[in-house]
Amino acid sequence: MAAFKGTDFYQFENLLSDEERLIQKTVRDFVETEFLPLLRDSYRKGEFPAQIIPKLGELGLLGPNLSGYDCPGLNNLAYGLINQELERGDSGLRSFASVQGSLVMYPIYTFGSEEQKQKWLPKLAAGEAVGCFGLTEPDFGSNPSGMRTRAEKTDGGWLLNGAKMWITNGSMADICVIWARTNEGVRGFLVERGRAGFETKTMHGKLSLRASDTAELLFENCELPEENLLPKTDGVKSALKCLSQARYGIAWGAIGAAMACFEEATEYSKGRIQFDGKPISSHQLVQEKLAYMLTEITKAQALVFQLARLKDSGVVTASQISLAKRNNVNHAIEIARLARQVLGANGILDDYHSMRHACNLESVLTYEGTHDIHTLILGYEITGTPAFS
Amino acid sequence: MKIIVCLKQVPVKDSLLKIKDDETWVHEDDLSYEINESDHYALETALRLKEEHGGEVVILTMGADRVREAIKQGLAKGAERAIHINNESFTTIDSNINAKILAAAIKTEQPDLILTGLQTDDYGSAQTGVILAEYLGLPHAGIVMEIQKQEGSIKVKRELESGWFQSVELPMPALLTIQSGINQLRYATIKGIMMAKKKEIKQPTLSDLGLSESDVAPGSSSLKFQKIYVPKKTKQTQFFEGDPKDIASQLVDKLRNEAKVF
């Protein structure tokens, strides 16, 4: 199969600086050469290909939009392009990088003490340590404010009890950012692997995001010293601030998955001959699918290019990010499903990418705020009346 | 050790090429470009030599504004600075003219080593490197696979035909044309890309290099593109007649003398 070229019908790439273009090209080549050869085996086994982690660190793809502490300080456009290219490979790869950068490094960077930053950020940036983010619980997904995990103040520290679920990178994490209810409201804590009273359980049987590590985190009288509190966290809004970072990356990443499917379906349709020796790309119903894919990818690109500008100028709102995440993932999964249809029976084999992307996007559709929750966020934005409490 | 690496930007390998109406070249407007493959290996080789022995790597390239992308990539991978001879008018197929221009730029630098790719993926003449060595009056070795630096000289392994290799020792300064695939190419890191923004890209004019337009004008070339075309697919079927023995004998004759398969 020819190397991935990307979709750029409206010449968005002309808006990129030399550096942004080179970053995109580098990540694209990296995914093609270093990641995709590992993927089929990892996906079949249901494992994240952990050997890629140091390479992600070496390239500077972990926490790339943070500055200092060995992070390169990229703008948000370049950060978005990285997410797009990673998810072109697999949503599991982008999820790994999103969690590490936006949900672990970002909260340490934003809410952590100087000691916490010095201790963890360089290691996390280099891929020498892996992090995870524990907010969701078995009974509290869309409503994190209801969380049951509790941290009780003790002499010189905290006592943590509770359980977190659906935690990306959970089994392999060296450091966890854990959100817990306290007498002062919800606060964030750092919990290191190996601490007494802390266990992880890998979640098996996933039909989606198979090349991603998903775990439960269990805390039973887990003692934490005072210095493990993220001192600047202040309520569940601090956790939601992290999610806005990650959702921004997802809005870009979904386009990468959609591009991979569009390109695969287009190429396949030109070579698949049916009815009177003609390629199926000459059929009107196939062309309609391809036209839909190109249109929605192009519209999604327009959203994120402007969203990047808003974010870089510091005026972006959470609901603007919600709109892009909601729209882009929703259309990406439709594109992936249509691409699978164009591929016919061949499309169900893992020789091809579209069905894997479609399966992955089922998770992406409902994580980091479900599609429906983002709808309600926009409903609240439009009407001023929340449909949720 | 100062090493100059000559980089050329060429159309991306699996580009869809459309031939121009005058059949002298392809339409370039809708092409994407990349660093020529063996030049990539020349750069990687230079960076490894620098990392082992110290010194600097300087990228030298010629061409239009678009080659800045290739230069930035080289700088991001670790080259210290670049020289970009930016002039569309003397883009030519003539390796002799290209070598003359490159030689003029190299003379101002006094490098210890000059590395080029073995050949370019577009014209594929494999001439520029060796002609460049002649203009500079330097020893050269082609199709180089390994380099060992010694005191004042280098020892190189060259690839010959049929799986043979040759070991050659050359005094420095010298010019080497590098074979593809001889080492593992590095990626430009994000930090490298950001640092490249601050690195020098010198853009000398022809007069800075002591050359005039007439020295390098395409019209001064002794080479001219006559025609470029896509090979036509042809298919011929021949039926042999006679008894099986005759047919076998005719078939063997064709295979031996026309198809030359044995």
Structure characterization notes:
The complex is a heterodimer of chains A (389) and B (262). In chain A, helix 3 (76-89) packs across helix 6 and helix 6 runs antiparallel to helix 9 (354-366). Chain A has 3 domains: 12-126, Acyl-CoA dehydrogenase/oxidase, N-terminal domain (Butyryl-Coa Dehydrogenase, subunit A, domain 1), CATH 1.10.540.10; 131-234, Butyryl-CoA Dehydrogenase, subunit A, domain 2 (Beta Barrel), CATH 2.40.110.10; 237-383, Up-down Bundle (Butyryl-CoA Dehydrogenase, subunit A, domain 3), CATH 1.20.140.10. Chain A is 51% helix and 16% strand. With 389 residues, chain A is α+β, with helices and mostly antiparallel strands. The model of chain A has no long low-confidence stretch (mean pLDDT 96). Chain A has helices at residues 18-45, 53-59, 76-89, 91-111, 114-126, 236-271, 284-312, 318-342, 354-366, 371-383, and strands spanning 67-68, 71-72, 131-134, 150-154, 157-168, 175-182, 185-192, 198-202, 214-225, 273-274, 278-279. A 4-stranded antiparallel β-sheet of chain A has the order 4-5-9-8, covered by helices on one side. In chain A, strands 3-6-7 form a 3-stranded mixed β-sheet, covered by helices on one side. With 262 residues, chain B is α/β, with parallel strands linked by helices. In chain B, the strands form 2 sheets. A 9-stranded mixed β-sheet of chain B has the order 9-8-7-10-6-1-4-5-11, sandwiched between helices. Chain B has a two-stranded antiparallel sheet with strand order 2-3. The termini of chain B are far apart. Chains A and B meet through helix 1 of A and helix 2 and helix 5 of B.
